[in-house]
Write a structure and sequence with these properties.
flat; mainly alpha; three-stranded antiparallel beta sheet
Length: 720
């Protein structure tokens, strides 16, 4: 017969023997079964015998000694030969003072390690960053420290120049992914601020690292539908302790929108059952008190009473198997991922269940909200000049573009019309190329900025300037005859941003002051189309030839009038952005921000009819664009606007004033105005409509629109 395992009956010799009773109680409190506890005691007995044979006391049980023991054990055993296996044993011995605490990390060796250690202390102390973030910053700046600041262990921090910083960025960033490039630039800017604050460098070199392209809400989250959320919850077996824990975790994340780390550190004393609140410890040391929903509280009580092991740990959620220690954030994410696999949902991360879980109130109202259908994935690739400033993947900058046409009536000179190329011109061209390459690696497009900067270099060369001065920058900005003050200020702004970066490498390049050419922001007065004018525009578009051109422009005008999207957004739509089943449109706007628009049934039917006619008229068209030309390619703004001006002439729509002319973009203003009018007339709260309109709602409140609000009816797009 097999004997029943008993951890207290394991025989001990050596320095660990006096601590056997306490160790047995420790393993029992951690939730180890008798079999598992017996195996742990056998491991402790093996360690004790090894220490006795080696003549080592418990005071000498350091990590290198443990590694020696495990190395020898690994040769004779098939389990329990890792530091993790020794954790409960050594943890208890340290707590009772028998084994010394872990030794402090060794002092940094070498100039690079010493500098990184000081930088880590600065980030953790003065900047209050968490240890994982500090380690990430050190990882991103280490190549710069080892290659530029301390090459071959030689400390040359005080002699580093902006040119070396720029050279490092130019060589490194274009080879990285955009996210890696952005993280490197962000960490490097922090390091350069630290060096200047500690007086290790005399000049602030932060401007040598351009800012990272970042726009809030720049991506449409992929939400879980209400059905998917219910499937996720149903995948948790509420009859088992593990299932109760998983159900409580997912319910809290869904109902309170908690992060994985916030769930992992949730403490028992943080729940106020009387007040019905829960204390959340968030990012950056932030502490919030949130109401605890009834359904979340019920599953939490069920877990605490019938699923949580008896353990000294004070966190709400602990491991389901011994040792019953607090969960880690990665463990919370794994709980969601495993439940999603059981439910047949594929890969679902913890953030998807938290921030984008099904909103039951939105589902009751019939809104897409958090429980709406998932959007079609956005394909990569360039959608032409949509004037939305969407960042493109980083790529090598092209050769100098002196042969390209200039801007604003100021053609760029060519080699045949210029004096001999000077050394200053060659250097400036190189600086411009490096500047564009670095900024594009950080997420910027800069297509027109490239033309402006090379035009500025050609301007300097044409006037024979020995260096780039403020006077030359102003002269270039004001060179186009008849240009508006606003446009001149924008030209000077592009030159100033480059000059501020290049000045650190070449002090002879002067930096213009920010407000040297101030220009008041002027806006054209919106033209609010009437219903009759919209009908006339659609009739005029129907007369275009060939027929595919007519139906395309009819659809473009009707779609913009019905949804209020921008011109560039309409031209950037792909066929996959139109979800026929859900009657929704995924729109990519400025700075890559995406949003999902619900469509009226008439608009949905109109788009379906357009796609049918498009397949009939151009069956061979393979362009992914929703709106295409007669050649089967994507519409471009430079060709759309002239056609629209022709349509306004044919429809008899004239300028209201010199500052109020009918434009295609004014269909967006019309949508905003009529939406606000409808809110007032139907008794809705206008303040609740404004956030939905985003910036369009702001346009509807401008004084210049007031004179054109009266007598306007709602647009009809059903028969577009």
């Amino acid at each position: 017969m097999h004997s029943v395992p008993d951890p207290s009956r394991v025989r001990f010799t050596g320095p660990v023997a006096p601590f056997v009773p306490g160790l047995v109680e420790e393993l029992a409190s951690l939730g180890y079964s008798t079999t598992s506890a017996t195996m742990q005691m056998q491991l402790a007995a093996s360690l004790s015998r090894w220490l006795s044979a080696a003549g080592i006391s418990l005071d000498g049980l350091t990590e290198p000694v443990m590694q020696r023991f495990l190395s020898e054990r690994r040769a004779r055993h098939t389990s329990h030969y890792s530091l993790r296996a020794l954790t409960p044993i050594v943890g208890y011995l340290r707590r009772v003072g028998a084994v010394p605490a872990p030794a402090a990390p060794p002092a940094p060796v070498g100039a690079a390690e010493a500098l990184l250690a000081r930088f880590a202390d600065y980030l953790g102390g003065q900047r209050a960053l968490t240890p994982p973030v500090v380690r990430a910053y050190l990882r991103w700046v280490r190549p710069f420290v080892e290659e530029v600041l301390c090459p071959a262990g030689v400390d040359r921090v005080g002699r580093v120049s902006a040119g070396e910083v720029a050279a490092f960025l130019t060589a490194r960033l274009p080879l990285m992914s955009r996210k890696s490039a952005q993280m490197t630039a962000c960490a490097l800017r922090s390091l350069l601020r630290f060096l200047h604050a500690e007086a290790m460098i005399e000049t602030a070199l932060v401007d040598a690292v351009p800012r990272v392209a970042f726009w809030r809400l720049s991506g449409l989250p992929q939400p879980l539908t209400g059905t998917q959320v219910q499937m996720l919850l149903a995948a948790c077996d509420g009859l088992t302790p593990v299932g109760r824990r998983d159900l409580a975790v997912i319910t809290l994340m869904r109902r309170l929108g908690l992060r994985c780390a916030e769930v992992a550190v949730l403490r028992l004393e943080g729940i106020d059952w009387t007040a019905g609140t829960v204390t959340i410890h968030g990012k950056g040391g932030r502490i919030d008190r949130m109401p605890l929903p009834v359904d979340a509280g019920q599953v939490l009580v069920d877990y605490l009473l019938h699923g949580r092991p008896d353990t000294p740990a004070r966190t709400v959620f602990v491991r389901a198997t011994a040792a019953f220690t607090p969960l880690r954030p990665s463990s919370v994410s794994c709980i969601v991922a495993r439940a999603a696999r059981r439910a047949g949902l594929g890969t679902v991360h913890g953030h998807s269940a938290a921030a984008h879980g099904g909103d039951r109130d939105a589902e009751r109202r019939g809104e897409p909200g958090r429980g709406g259908p998932t959007a079609a994935p956005r394909r990569g690739g360039h959608h032409g000049r949509l004037h939305q400033d969407r960042p493109e993947p980083p790529g090598p900058v092209g050769p100098p573009v002196a042969h390209r046409d200039g801007d604003g009536g100021h053609p760029m000179t060519t080699a045949t019309s210029m004096p001999a190329v000077t050394a200053m011109t060659v250097r400036l061209r190189g600086l411009v190329a490096d500047y564009l390459r670095v900024r594009r690696a950080l997420g910027y497009k800069l297509d027109y900025t490239e033309r402006l900067l090379f035009a500025f270099v050609d301007y300097l060369h044409a006037v024979g300037a020995p260096a780039a001065t403020v006077e030359h920058a102003v002269g270039f900005a004001m060179a186009p005859p008849g240009a508006s003050p606003r446009w001149q200020a924008l030209r000077l702004s592009a030159v100033r941003c480059f000059a501020r970066w290049a000045h650190l490498q070449d002090p002879s390049i002067q930096v213009p002051s920010p407000r040297l050419l101030p220009a008041r922001v002027t806006r054209a007065a919106p033209y609010i189309y009437s219903d009759a004018e919209i009908t006339s525009l659609l009739d005029a578009a129907a007369q275009l030839r060939p027929q595919i051109r007519a139906v395309t422009f009819q659809t473009l005008i009707a779609l913009m009038a019905a949804t209020g999207i921008r011109t560039g957004e309409a031209l950037g739509l792909d066929v996959t952005d139109f979800d026929q089943r859900a009657a929704a449109l995924t729109v990519t706007g400025k700075y890559g921000k995406t949003r999902r628009l619900p469509l009226h049934p008439s608009v949905r039917d109109g788009l379906v009819d357009y796609l049918h006619q498009r397949r009939r008229l151009l069956p061979a068209a393979s362009c992914p664009a929703l709106l295409i030309t007669s050649r089967g390619t994507r519409l471009k703004p430079q060709s759309v606007h002239p056609v629209f001006r022709t349509l306004t002439d044919r429809a008899g729509i004239t300028d209201a004033s010199s500052a109020c002319r009918p434009r295609l973009h004014d269909l967006r203003h019309r949508f905003a105005v009529l939406t606000m009018l409808h809110a007032y007339r139907s008794g809705q709260d206008p303040a609740a409509v404004l956030p939905v309109l985003e910036r369009v709602g702001k346009a509807a409140t401008r004084p210049q629109l007031a004179a054109r609000l009266g007598g306007q009816g709602r647009v009809r797009v059903g028969g577009s």
